[in-house]
Design a protein that fits this description.
- Pfam families: PhoH (PF02562), PIN_4 (PF13638).
- This is PhoH family protein.
- There is one protein chain.
- Helix 11 crosses helix 12.
- It is built from 15 helices and 18 strands.
- It folds into three domains: 163 residues, Rossmann fold; 74 residues, Elongation Factor Tu (Ef-tu), domain 3 (Beta Barrel); 214 residues, Rossmann fold (3-Layer(aba) Sandwich).
- The two termini are 30 Å apart.
- It has a six-stranded mixed beta sheet. The chain has a six-stranded mixed beta sheet with strand order 7-10-11-12-9-8, with no helix packed on it.
- The protein is globular.
- The protein is α/β, with parallel strands linked by helices.
- It is 32% helix and 19% strand.
Length: 485
């Protein structure tokens, strides 16, 4: 499994021919790499990097504005200014990066200091910025014939054009948490049939606060993570969560069965194993950070809102629910939206309204709030406790004692995800919902999404939990469509 410990100097060149220690590679950076990750200047270890003049021009063209891309363009320019200012006379020979990067990189930074005549094949327009960068790569490949010159770009078409011209090109891999999202932590594991025979010889069992605990020892326990959910089907089914793990020893705690009507959460009961696991995490006050992954219709938003309303209005554990999401349209943007922040966010919050209709109906059936008047009063009460916020105004805020829901979190970059999660003050619970198969943000992939990033980084922390919901519960039509389309 690929982890962030694998640096990009290894990952950007996996499969390339091994060079001798003295013959390092020369990486030519496309603009989108710097706008995606300004720290990419320090991510190539002992290898050298080359920044064409056209890359600097494009950074300059994109520096204005308040978007994430503009901020990254400004950050990349500032970092290069600091590097060049430290060695003003060393641009021609290459500026060593070991000092500015604090030993993260030991290669050199080269800036284009000479006019390069674009010698591209006839028919390739030389006025286009991408093609001028390709001309630089071609020139460098001819000048350093004994050295590996590689273009690094997030632009697929740019990489295809480079390969068509006989140049080596690669994606920027450093920010990818996983090469294969099938390896992403699911948050649960099935115990083998012989688990108790192999792990139960020195088992201890006790009861505490209505829960049963098992202390088991064996080889499988070493691979388990704290707050991972384990299950075993059969005559005596077991659904439990790992509370502690130390070497080959683990402590299991049995779960509350939210599939039973007596344990319903705001009128909602779990319809499958994963939903039961999710509700156990959502209702657990010890778990501060939860990620729920799953395709459309698996119940992510419904379960989260039900748990939030119960803990805000009934148990009073949190003061209110705050819901936010990335405003990336699926199709063409509909343009300017009038009104306040909450009114502008309303079109993006159709999922919230749909789920509130279900929950309001469920509350009426479960608690009997007195017909249409009671239902209207309940709806008004619920709406006063749910605030809809835009991501654009999150920087600098602190949420105290709130139930914070981040919807469509797969469209966030790791940096945006960090900005949001660090808003949490004392007593706040953060829930990230998303489907990594539905990413609408340019340059983000399943492997580099902020949602994938936090699932991998928070794994094993005692106050976080993760579940991948498998089965759709929306309707037979929706399930069949998700399967065949």
């Amino acid at each position: 499994m690929a982890t962030n410990k694998r640096n990009s100097a290894e990952r950007n060149h996996a499969g390339a021919k091994a060079d001798s220690a003295s013959n390092t590679k020369l990486f030519v950076l496309d603009t989108n790499v710097l706008m995606h990750d300004p720290t990419s200047l320090y991510r190539f270890e002992e290898h050298d990097i080359y920044v064409p003049i056209m890359t600097l021009e494009e950074l300059d063209n994109n520096k204005k504005g308040m978007s994430e891309v503009s901020r990254n363009a400004r950050q990349a320019s500032r970092m290069m200014d600091e590097i060049v200012s430290a060695f003003p006379n060393g641009i021609d020979e290459g500026i060593p990066l070991s000092g500015p990067s604090k030993e993260l990189a030991s290669g050199k930074l080269f800036l284009q200091t000479e006019a390069i005549d674009p010698t591209l094949p006839a028919g390739v327009p030389t006025a286009k910025a991408d093609n001028q960068i390709l001309a630089v790569v071609m020139f460098l490949s001819q000048r350093f014939a004994d050295r590996s010159v590689i273009l690094v770009s997030k632009d697929i078409n740019m990489r295809i054009k480079a390969r068509a011209l006989g140049l080596e090109a690669q994606d920027y891999f450093n920010d990818k948490v996983l090469e294969d999202t099938d390896l992403l932590y699911t948050g649960m594991r099935e115990l083998p049939d012989d688990f108790w025979e192999t792990h139960g010889k020195e088992m201890e069992s006790w009861k505490e606060n209505g829960r049963t605990y098992f202390k088991v020892k064996g080889p499988l326990c070493a691979d388990m993570s704290v707050n991972e959910l384990v299950f075993q089907d059969g005559d005596k089914p077991l659904h439990a969560i790992i509370k502690q793990r130390s070497g080959p020893t683990a402590v299991f705690e049995t779960l509350i069965d939210y599939g039973h009507q007596k344990n319903n959460v705001w009128g909602i009961v779990a319809r499958n194993r994963e939903q039961n696991f999710a509700l156990n995490l959502l209702m657990n006050p010890e778990v501060d950070f939860i990620t729920l992954l799953g395709q459309a219709g698996t119940g992510k938003t419904l379960l989260t809102l039900a748990a939030g309303l119960t803990q805000v209005l009934e148990t009073k554990r949190y003061s209110e629910i705050i819901m936010t999401r990335v405003t990336v349209p699926v199709g063409e943007d509909i343009g300017f939206l009038p009104g306040t922040e909450e009114e502008k966010m309303a079109p993006w919050m159709g999922a919230l309204e749909d789920n509130l209709d279900v929950l309001n109906g469920g509350a009426e059936e479960g608690g009997g709030y007195g017909g249409e008047w009671g239902r209207a009063a309940t709806r008004d009460l619920i709406r006063t406790r749910i605030k809809v916020k835009s991501l654009n105004f999150m920087r600098g805020r602190t949420f105290i004692n709130k139930f914070l829901i981040i919807d469509e979190a797969q469209n966030l970059t790791p940096k945006q995800m960090k900005t949001l999660i660090t808003r949490a003050g004392p007593g706040t619970k953060v829930i990230c919902l998303g489907n990594i198969a539905q990413i609408d943000t340019p340059y983000l992939t399943e492997g580099s999404s902020g949602l994938t990033y936090v699932v991998d980084r928070f794994k094993g922390w005692p106050h976080s939990g993760h579940i991948t919901l498998q089965r759709g519960e929306r309707s037979r039509l929706a399930d069949h469509a998700a399967e065949i389309l």
